[in-house]
Amino acid sequence: MVISHAKATVEEMEDAWQGEIEDILSQLSSHELVYECAVLKTCNRLEMYVVSPRGSSVLFHFAKKMGVSSRIVEFYDHEESLYHLLKLSCGLESMIIGEDQILGQIKDLYTISKNAGTMGKILETAFSKAIQVGKRARTETNINRGSVSIASAAVDLADEMLKGLQGRNILVIGTGEMGTLVTRALSHRDMNVVYLANRTYEKAKVLADELGGEAVDFMSLNRYTQQADVIISATSAPHYVLKKATVEKSLKNRNDNLLLIDIASPRDIDPEVESLPGVILRNIDNLRVINERNLQMRMEEAKKVETIIDEEYKMLINQYKRQKADALLSELYSQIYTLRKHEMDRAVNRLGAYHTIGDVECEVLDDLTRAIANKVLAEPTKVLRNAAEYNDEAFLDSACKLFNIKPYAKKEKENCK
């Protein structure tokens, strides 16, 4: 299930996101029909991946429970989800085509889901492949050459709207990942000064010392909003950091407009500030124009990346086919070998009642029963692998029932616990 900038506005993205990732994982994994799950959350994307015999139904009801409009939700089946994930890791689904940040976010998703115990072999295979393909795309093509992130796109937007940043005072609120990227992008521009504000002053000071700029006390924010020509806010606060009253005070004795750019999710800046004269407010939705230009520049590289994705996608599908057959065969071999060992031990005990059974006799019996088991299993092994290769789900399901073997995904859910 995908909710992203492609269909949702900033307000709709905020409404869609409820709770911490771990809470969502807990809710999803507690469903009896969900065997594995993973959740990705970025400033303009919310995605949920589940392994389930009724995945679309489970996610549809979850989306309904979240209260989001069906207009902004996309549901993908197994193969569509895999292809989407590979495109996502390569930066082709991002607002800023080719950006690197998404690959790190997918790695974080992988770690969080593994630690939460909600990722089994099926999702692990998909996300391991996605990370590998994302790295390959960036190594073998120029999809991310000179690429921009949302953070640097915000700086580009400010530069464009003010017709240059030379001599300007910039206030960056937040020194987390996004705020750091903004500051890095600004460090290459010719401006007067960059103020860095964070609730933890020491963090702002470290970043200011590293990249240049002046760290400011968060409690003194009002004073610096008055001095700033541009304010870029990128905190992870659950509430507004800049309220209308604060911005209104900063407008006193100001000759030029105040440009506010909000790239936080949820938003940092009260949208009511836009009603104030002399205030220009922009958010993530306004970065689409930067993306359009970026897309045109990267079309040729995107074609090369899609060729890589097509190649890796086929390999991933074949990998799943092998896994499905191998899981069934592993269980079948385990059953037969357990039976073989049990019957061989019985035979040894019965023979031992009449005469002494030495190591040589035991070895002969072991070789005999092993050879019989392998020959009996040879043809079923070939048939089951062929069925997996040709996606004969009905045949594989029948084989599971015939030998009383739990379906692959269901067994993975138990292994995740």
UniProtKB/TrEMBL annotation:
<dbReference type="InterPro" id="IPR018214">
    <property type="entry name" value="GluRdtase_CS"/>
</dbReference>
<dbReference type="GO" id="GO:0008883">
    <property type="term" value="F:glutamyl-tRNA reductase activity"/>
</dbReference>
<feature type="binding site">
    <location>
        <begin position="42"/>
        <end position="45"/>
    </location>
    <ligand>
        <name>substrate</name>
    </ligand>
</feature>
<dbReference type="InterPro" id="IPR000343">
    <property type="entry name" value="4pyrrol_synth_GluRdtase"/>
</dbReference>
<dbReference type="GO" id="GO:0019353">
    <property type="term" value="P:protoporphyrinogen IX biosynthetic process from glutamate"/>
</dbReference>
<feature type="active site" description="Nucleophile">
    <location>
        <position position="43"/>
    </location>
</feature>
<feature type="domain" description="Quinate/shikimate 5-dehydrogenase/glutamyl-tRNA reductase">
    <location>
        <begin position="156"/>
        <end position="289"/>
    </location>
</feature>
<feature type="binding site">
    <location>
        <begin position="174"/>
        <end position="179"/>
    </location>
    <ligand>
        <name>NADP(+)</name>
    </ligand>
</feature>
<dbReference type="InterPro" id="IPR015896">
    <property type="entry name" value="4pyrrol_synth_GluRdtase_dimer"/>
</dbReference>
<comment type="function">
    <text>Catalyzes the NADPH-dependent reduction of glutamyl-tRNA(Glu) to glutamate 1-semialdehyde (GSA).</text>
</comment>
<feature type="domain" description="Tetrapyrrole biosynthesis glutamyl-tRNA reductase dimerisation">
    <location>
        <begin position="304"/>
        <end position="405"/>
    </location>
</feature>
<feature type="binding site">
    <location>
        <position position="105"/>
    </location>
    <ligand>
        <name>substrate</name>
    </ligand>
</feature>
<protein>
    <recommendedName>
        <fullName>Glutamyl-tRNA reductase</fullName>
        <ecNumber>1.2.1.70</ecNumber>
    </recommendedName>
</protein>
<keyword id="KW-0560">Oxidoreductase</keyword>
<dbReference type="InterPro" id="IPR036343">
    <property type="entry name" value="GluRdtase_N_sf"/>
</dbReference>
<feature type="site" description="Important for activity">
    <location>
        <position position="84"/>
    </location>
</feature>
<comment type="subunit">
    <text>Homodimer.</text>
</comment>
<feature type="domain" description="Glutamyl-tRNA reductase N-terminal">
    <location>
        <begin position="3"/>
        <end position="141"/>
    </location>
</feature>
<dbReference type="InterPro" id="IPR036291">
    <property type="entry name" value="NAD(P)-bd_dom_sf"/>
</dbReference>
<dbReference type="Pfam" id="PF01488">
    <property type="entry name" value="Shikimate_DH"/>
</dbReference>
<dbReference type="InterPro" id="IPR015895">
    <property type="entry name" value="4pyrrol_synth_GluRdtase_N"/>
</dbReference>
<feature type="binding site">
    <location>
        <position position="94"/>
    </location>
    <ligand>
        <name>substrate</name>
    </ligand>
</feature>
<dbReference type="GO" id="GO:0050661">
    <property type="term" value="F:NADP binding"/>
</dbReference>
<feature type="binding site">
    <location>
        <begin position="99"/>
        <end position="101"/>
    </location>
    <ligand>
        <name>substrate</name>
    </ligand>
</feature>
<comment type="similarity">
    <text>Belongs to the glutamyl-tRNA reductase family.</text>
</comment>
<keyword id="KW-0521">NADP</keyword>
<dbReference type="InterPro" id="IPR006151">
    <property type="entry name" value="Shikm_DH/Glu-tRNA_Rdtase"/>
</dbReference>
<dbReference type="Pfam" id="PF00745">
    <property type="entry name" value="GlutR_dimer"/>
</dbReference>
<comment type="pathway">
    <text>Porphyrin-containing compound metabolism; protoporphyrin-IX biosynthesis; 5-aminolevulinate from L-glutamyl-tRNA(Glu): step 1/2.</text>
</comment>
<dbReference type="Pfam" id="PF05201">
    <property type="entry name" value="GlutR_N"/>
</dbReference>
<dbReference type="InterPro" id="IPR036453">
    <property type="entry name" value="GluRdtase_dimer_dom_sf"/>
</dbReference>
<keyword id="KW-0627">Porphyrin biosynthesis</keyword>
